[in-house]
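Kindly inspect this one:
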Amino acid sequence: MVRFTDVNLDMATAEEVRGAFLAFKAEGKRKLVCHADVPTNAVYYLMSACDAVGVQPVGEVLIPGPMAMPLHLRGLLDKLGVVPDFVHVGAFKGAAEPLTRTEPSREMRETLTAVVDQAYLTMQSGIVAGRKLSPETVAQRIDEAVFTSEAALAAGLVDGVATYEDFRTQHTSGAPWKQVKLKDSPSGGGFDMEKLQTFLGLVPPKRPKEPHIALVYALGGIIDGRGQGTIGARNQIAGRTLAAAIDNLTDDANVAAILLRVDSGGGSAMASEQIWRALQRAKEKKPVIVSMGGVAASGGYYISCGATKIFALANTLTGSIGVVGGKIALEGMLEKVGIRTFPITKGKRAAMWSPMTPWTEGERASVLAMMEDVYKIFVGRVASGRGKSPEEIHAIAQGRVWTGAAAKERGLVDELGGLTEALAEARKLTGIAPEVALEVYPPEPTIKDLIEGFDSGPSLLRAAADHELVPGLAAALGEGGMAAVSGVLAQLDALRDDPVQTALIWPVLLR
């Protein structure tokens, strides 16, 4: 039995977990029962795979359908006196649009419409299959959107209205529960001192001495350098750190294959190139399989494109083969509060990267030329990895974001599937038996890594909201909106050190 409480899922993750649910049911014809308080789009789609679906009394089922809502900040920046100065290579490379435009471009609307359409198709087809309803009926239910517990029962969306405890009793017939004891938990019969010592950083984690598959995580934004501790690719992808880790696994004769799990909207072009090169060195010696999560776009696709085989979910956001770069000029905003700057320079372009003023036409042209070179390299990397010509890749590149389903049709990924399917392929290519444990890299973070990974300092927008520089901002955007915008500003912060980015930095509320 699975209980859902306060679960927030994107459609790609729900799609992958739903596959695991179906596999569980198919193995030994097991029964799966689910219960939730207020299931929404992705959670209800996931629950529809269960044999019985229960919902809390006085609860709700909310299935209004998927939505993408871009948040455009240009009007706010104008009020603050901030000048966004960005250029991009690729007609669909709209990462900077929320900063440079007051509304989405035609290309961005087309891209987001395709993303929403795929999410709707996934949601509808899943509910049709799970609840044994017709496509027309499910479309009607989605249009109705809001159901009380009893209305959901009458509409065939759930099988019972009961508290979790009562629903559990109904479907277990009073059978005893089996308590699963975790080996390393205090209640599991003993304390694991070695694991504690590893967590404290007193001893290094052990490496297996037999052939195995290495699962390598690449999660978060792609940044230059070493990042913050070995927590590394679990919350940020540091180019030098991850490339060095991959080289280490390449040289380890006991690593039969590398399974790279990518969930990233990209970032630094240089760091992406470093990781790509490391993976190419690895591929010369052993299979490199990529499993894409919710997002593997821009730099996330760059590091993936040369793999032996690429797996994506139907709702994965991928592609975005393009380059964006720029800066925000703060001089106008600072002058509004009485702050002035007086740059003293030697050299025509000495102040080119100053965060005070926009670029001159000559400076902008130089940056664009540099970005076009990066774009050509990016397209070339994809072409060589996917066995296509640069012209063929350019036709489907230009910064366009594709869903995993659309990417497969265009040859950007090989198979639709999640981590389970990617692992099965790695075992097939290497002959590593299922009973051989999968080793995860980087290892679980130590306490030192966690301390070094603490975020320091609020974003400009969060500070503006907290100090009511823009009245009502936090209330208007809500937590989801503030999180989306904070992500954009974090990427802008990276631009200070690296102005050329292969990044997907839309502030989009996607539900």
Q: What stands out?
A: The chain has a mean pLDDT of 82. The two ends are 26 Å apart (CA to CA). The chain is about 40% helix and 20% strand. The longest strand covers residues 255-264.
